[in-house]
Every structure is written in C-alpha cells, then in structure tokens.
Backbone:
C-alpha cells in the first residue's frame, strides 16, 4: 500500500510537471499585457523560430559614432521572450564609440572578438572602472549603470554582448539630452552646459527646443 506522504509527493511532482511551459515565442500581432508578450500557438511554432542569423553580418558603421549595434533581443528574436537572455553584436570602426548608455532591464557581459576596445562603467558611488580589452577578454557591466565602449586600437573592432534579460532596454545619454524636444534652458539648468553648446549638439543629434 502506498503511504499518504508518497502519494501526495507524487501528486505535487505531476502537478509541477504539468505547469512547466518550455517556451513562449512572442506573438507580436497580439496585444501586449503588463506580463509581457502573448505566446504564439504551439501548433504554429517551427524550428525557424529558434534560429537568428543577424549576428553574423557586420553592422553599418558609416554614422556619427562610427559604430553599429545589432541586437538579438526579444523584439528581433521572439523565441527569447520570457527566457531572460539576449545577445548583441558590436562593430566599431576606427575611432568608433558607443557613448555612455545604460540598459535598465539587465546586466551585460561583453566579449571581444577582434581588435582593442576601451570599455568601462561608473558605479552609483561615481567610481570609474575601465580597461583595455583585447580578443578573448570579457567585461561585465552591472544592470542600470552607465557604461561605454571605444575602439582604442588600429583596426576595426568586433565584440559580442550577452544580457540577463530578453529585453534589456537601451538609453544613450547623449540622445536623451540632445535628440528630443527637452527645452534648451532645462538642459542647461540640469547639466551646467553652455546654451550655445547645447544648441550645437541638438543640431547634430536632431533635437529641438
């Protein structure tokens, strides 16, 4: 005869197994809820949903910052939805830079594939941590902290980043300040920058006000 304890334990195990959901490939055609994106019906999911080929292609660095970030977040790779992971490719031309930015939703690990990259972050105590990274080096950037990457070598650089979120988010400080309609007077009051310089930067980055 099966003891009551073993019977209850077996019921709990079967219930837990039944509640497991292996994946939730995002269905962006359905309304998004506070809990996140809806899942595609399992019958419509194929192997192609779990493959993303975009990181094998170099990004276009013909721009102001001479850099390109190719994201494999849930928005580009719906199979990541709900898994708490994502990736990105970073291409830096000579003198390329990813300005101070933050990922509000996740921590980042960067691994250098080619070239030399000066990378660093600033802690909430305003302590600065930065290093020269070469091929094979890895650096971590804690969630929410301002960080940057600069090509400090003599050849184009390539790196890959992994994140602890399927949607880590991105805010680039320069664009937050100078690429919107925040009034120049408010930018000056909150940054102590000269109004002439602020207007110049807004002209470069497309801001108004």
Residues:
């Amino acid at each position: 005869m099966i003891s009551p304890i073993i019977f209850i334990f077996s019921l709990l195990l079967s219930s837990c197994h039944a509640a497991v959901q292996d994946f939730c490939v995002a269905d962006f055609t359905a309304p998004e809820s506070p809990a996140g994106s809806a899942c595609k019906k399992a019958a419509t999911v194929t192997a192609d949903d779990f493959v993303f080929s975009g990181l094998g292609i170099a990004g276009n660095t013909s721009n102001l910052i001479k850099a390109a970030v190719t994201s494999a977040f849930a928005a580009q790779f719906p199979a990541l939805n709900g898994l708490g992971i994502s990736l990105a490719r970073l291409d830096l031309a000579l003198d390329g830079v990813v300005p101070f930015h933050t990922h509000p939703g996740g921590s980042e690990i960067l691994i250098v594939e080619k070239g030399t990259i000066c990378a660093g972050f600033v802690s909430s105590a305003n302590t600065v941590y930065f290093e020269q990274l070469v091929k094979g080096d890895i650096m971590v950037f804690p969630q929410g902290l301002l960080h940057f990457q600069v090509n400090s070598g003599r050849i184009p650089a390539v790196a890959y980043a992994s994140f602890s979120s399927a949607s880590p988010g991105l805010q680039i400080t320069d664009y937050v300040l100078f690429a919107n309609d925040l009034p120049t007077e408010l930018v000056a009051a909150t940054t102590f920058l000269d109004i002439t310089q602020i207007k110049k930067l807004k002209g470069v980055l497309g801001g108004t006000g």
Summary: The helical segments are 4-19, 173-178, 184-191, 195-205. Residues 176-205 form one domain. The chain has a mean pLDDT of 91.
